[in-house]
Design goal:
Number of domains: 2
Radius of gyration: 56 Å
Strand content: under 5%
Helix content: over 70%
Low-confidence stretches: 1-7
Shape: rod-shaped
Oligomer: single chain
Distance between the termini: 170 Å
Mean pLDDT: 85
Largest sheet: none
Length: 149
């Protein structure tokens, strides 16, 4: 049975039966063919790994370049923001310098609560009205005394 299976296979070199030398020669040929296939596969895999590493290196370099650009843009924006913040802070300081202090505000509030100043304004207005009337009387007197009818 084992022999019939071996004889079913075609024998190399037109041999009639498998001999130990023929088996050795056949196995060596198969081994050499397998080695050749394995070497080709290994070379193809090695090339694929090199290509993948080269592509990965390009991608990493592109990512690094993009991140460096992004960092530069962020640093420039941060610098502009700091400059604007300092300018804004200076403007707010100048504006606050003109504000009334809390002590000034309390003093003014107390004067308003006591009603100070309202009577003085009325007195000043009556003084202006009286001064205006006196001025009109003086002009009328001057005109009457100098103009002879």
């Amino acid at each position: 049975m084992g022999r019939s299976r071996m004889t079913e296979n075609k024998l190399p070199d037109g041999q009639a039966d498998w001999t130990p030398g023929l088996v050795l020669k056949h196995m060596t040929a198969i081994s050499i063919a397998n080695d050749q296939r394995y070497q080709e596969r290994f070379a193809a895999q090695e090339k694929a790994v090199k290509d993948a590493l080269a592509a990965q290196e390009k991608a990493v370099n592109a990512a690094l370049a993009a991140s460096e650009k992004a960092v530069l843009v962020a640093e420039n924006n941060a610098q502009k923001w700091r400059e604007n913040a300092n300018e804004w802070r200076a403007a707010m300081t100048d504006r606050e310098r003109n504000f009334a202090t809390q002590g000034d505000f309390k003093a003014i509030k107390e004067r308003v609560d006591r009603g100070e100043g309202s009577g003085k304004g009325m007195r000043d207005m009556w003084a202006l009205i009286a001064g205006g009337i006196l001025l009109l009387i003086a002009i009328a007197t001057f005109i009457v005394s100098h103009v002879k009818l």
